[in-house]
């Protein structure tokens, strides 16, 4: 297939500024994709290309996504190898490739696939094409147990490359005719779920960006919850485990402002602003950004507006500072002081 393919390559889950790349055709794209293997889960990924902004970087976000010429799928589980074999056979009618993921087992096979498209697709078109092909697969009796992770249909969503020990499948069928598929594809309605919101917040959070840039993020415990290296780790007197210190995203899961938790005694009484300053950030500027981003956003846990929960750290910071300031007393005038001294001398005599 002779059509240039534009795409992005990221280095890990938290890389919001992936490098922009091109391949002269799908054959070349397939080779580059499959040769770029990761040593462990959550590292190298590919997604659509993005516009380069004023900082000469491409920001991974839906508003900057450029049209793409590949169709991604993430099959997040199915009942046994027989179903897996049926799926591989069905995908072989298209031009593309597939590979097993880190969670693949014989009992619950998992794989990803990438199919070639006849032309570039807008973000919405790609979602519609993916959903249409998903519907065709689900129409088979053997496909009832196949689970689809539909988040990868979005142009900005990372599709992780194969691990070093992954099984690879090559599909030599026909290129997906985009215009033909779109004739019957359902209209796409963007209704972001919890995962979408968490990823959007993570991409724009100044605290998480610094933690990632400094290599302090150890793992993602769950959506909105990251295990990190404590900014004050050098002051700890005991060894830190994987989950000893955590950071929670703002405006997600009941947390209005990004929050640190460290279970070491040295950090038990630390205020949130201390952690933020240690990262080289201005707490009030960070909190202002969190507050602005969260205006009217529903809490994923309670459904309430994010204005509803969590003590305001700006107000708390000002209260703490006020309690630390020495009490202000009115100084006595010089004349009043001299008069009091004279009265004291007369009483002594």
Q: Could you characterize the architecture of this molecule?
A:
The protein is an alpha+beta fold. Helices cover 31% and strands 18% of the residues. The chain is built from 10 helices and 12 strands. The chain has helices at residues 26-35, 80-91, 123-138, 178-182, 194-204, 206-213, 272-278, 283-294, 313-324, 334-348; strands spanning 5-10, 19-23, 45-47, 68-75, 95-100, 111-121, 159-160, 168-172, 217-222, 225-228, 245-248, 259-262. Strand 1 and strand 2 (19-23) form a beta hairpin. The protein is globular, with a radius of gyration of 28 Å. The model is unreliable at 298-310 and 319-337 (pLDDT under 50).
Sketch the major β-sheet.
4 strands, antiparallel
Mean pLDDT: 84
Gross morphology: globular
Give the distance, in angstroms, between the N- and C-terminal Cα atoms: 113 Å
Regions with little confidence, pLDDT below 50 for 5+ residues? 298-310, 319-337
| Element order: H for helix, E for strand | EEHEEHEEHEEHHHEEEEHHHH
Radius of gyration: 28 Å
- Total beta strand runs: 12
Structural class: alpha+beta
- Count every helix, treating DSSP H or I runs of 4 or more residues as helices: 10
Percent of residues in β-strands: 15-25%
Strand order of the largest sheet: 2-1-3-7
The residue fraction in helices comes out at 25-40%
């Amino acid at each position: 297939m002779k059509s240039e393919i534009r795409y992005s390559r990221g280095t890990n889950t938290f890389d919001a500024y992936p490098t922009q790349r091109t391949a002269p055709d799908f054959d070349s794209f397939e080779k580059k994709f499959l040769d770029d293997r990761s040593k462990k889960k959550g590292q190298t990924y590919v997604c659509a290309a993005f516009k380069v902004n004023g900082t000469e970087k491409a920001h991974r976000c839906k508003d900057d996504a450029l049209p793409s010429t590949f169709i991604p799928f993430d099959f997040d589980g199915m009942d046994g190898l027989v179903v897996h074999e049926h799926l591989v056979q069905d995908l072989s009618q298209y031009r593309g490739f597939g590979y097993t993921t880190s969670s693949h087992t014989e009992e619950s096979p998992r794989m990803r696939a990438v199919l070639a498209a006849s032309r570039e697709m807008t973000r919405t078109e790609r979602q519609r094409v993916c959903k249409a092909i998903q519907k065709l697969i689900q129409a088979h009796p053997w496909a009832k147990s196949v689970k689809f992770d539909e988040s990868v249909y979005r142009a900005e969503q990372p599709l992780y490359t194969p691990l070093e020990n992954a099984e690879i499948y090559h599909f030599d069928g026909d290129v997906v005719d985009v215009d033909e598929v779109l004739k019957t594809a359902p209209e796409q309605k963007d209704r972001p779920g919890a995962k979408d919101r968490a990823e959007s917040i993570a991409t724009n959070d100044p605290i998480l960006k610094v933690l990632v840039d400094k290599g302090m993020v150890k793992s993602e415990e769950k959506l909105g919850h990251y295990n990190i290296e404590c900014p004050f780790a050098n002051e700890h007197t005991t060894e830190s485990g994987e989950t000893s210190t955590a950071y929670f995203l703002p405006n997600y899961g009941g947390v209005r402002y990004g929050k640190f938790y460290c279970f070491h005694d040295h950090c038990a009484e630390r205020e949130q602003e201390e952690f933020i300053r240690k990262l080289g950030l201005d707490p009030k500027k960070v909190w202002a950004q969190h507050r602005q981003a969260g205006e009217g956003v529903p809490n994923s846990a309670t459904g309430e507006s994010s204005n509803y929960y969590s003590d305001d750290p700006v107000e708390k910071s000002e209260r703490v500072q006020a309690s630390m300031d020495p009490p202000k007393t009115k100084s006595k005038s010089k004349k009043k002081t001299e008069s009091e001294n004279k009265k004291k001398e007369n009483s002594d005599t």
